Amino acid sequence: MRQKFADFPNWKRVVEKKYINKYFDTPDFKGNISLLTAVKVKEKIVRIINGKEIVVFNDNFKWLELYPEDNKNLAVMVGINDKDEIFDCFIDIAQNTGITEAGIPYIDDLYLDIIINSLGELKLVDEDELKEALDSNDITKEQYDLAYKVANETIKKLDGKFEKLKGFSIKYFNLLKEENTIKDK
């Protein structure tokens, strides 16, 4: 099983980045939220979504990462472009989430992911990686089953709720962005 860290320590596509993490204990969220900004990247990445080109990686793109304390089986990453607009949401299905001694959130990744595009369409991805991990004994059958269970439950909860997720994400993005600006001064 692989671990993924919120600060993406080995991100080869990024020349310069900024990172901030904060613990929140509010009525609508309890857990860690990180903001990673790719200040300068090596090259931009464009995806075609419903016949339209969408830039998903470029200078000054940001990723808001949510690690809810009440659900250690997932982490949510919200892609935000250089105009501070959400362009997609990526949900990692995890065996567990945690915090390093340095205060960096991480997940024990179960390979299966959910993508919600800018149109609110949900898509389950990386099923081949999950199957390969099972076949190579990188994960157990119980972990394999857990990945599908968490993914299916999450899809049901999120279906039709992309606008609500966007509003929630923008709220915390603005809080971290403001704090990051204060730290830069």
Write a brief structural summary.
This protein has a single domain (2-184), classed as FomD barrel-like fold (Beta Barrel), CATH 2.40.380. Helices cover 27% and strands 46% of the residues.
Structural notes for this entry:
The chain is an alpha+beta fold and 185 residues long. The chain has a single domain (2-184), classed as FomD barrel-like fold (Beta Barrel), CATH 2.40.380. Helix content is 27%, strand content 46%. It is built from three helices and ten strands; from the N terminus they run E-E-E-E-E-E-E-E-E-E-H-H-H. The protein has helices at residues 127-135, 141-158, 162-184, and strands at 2-5, 14-25, 30-41, 45-49, 52-57, 61-68, 74-80, 86-99, 105-117, 122-125. The mean pLDDT is 91.
Q: Biggest sheet: strands, sense, closure?
A: 8 strands, antiparallel
Q: Rg from C-alpha positions?
A: 16 Å
Q: Indicate the CATH class.
A: Mainly Beta
CATH architectural group: Beta Barrel
Distance between the termini: 40 Å
Beta-strand content: over 45%
Element layout with pairings:
Blueprint: E1 2-5, E2 14-25, E3 30-41, E4 45-49, E5 52-57, E6 61-68, E7 74-80, E8 86-99, E9 105-117, E10 122-125, H1 127-135, H2 141-158, H3 162-184
Antiparallel strand pairs: 1-9, 2-3, 3-6, 4-5, 6-7, 7-8, 8-9, 9-10
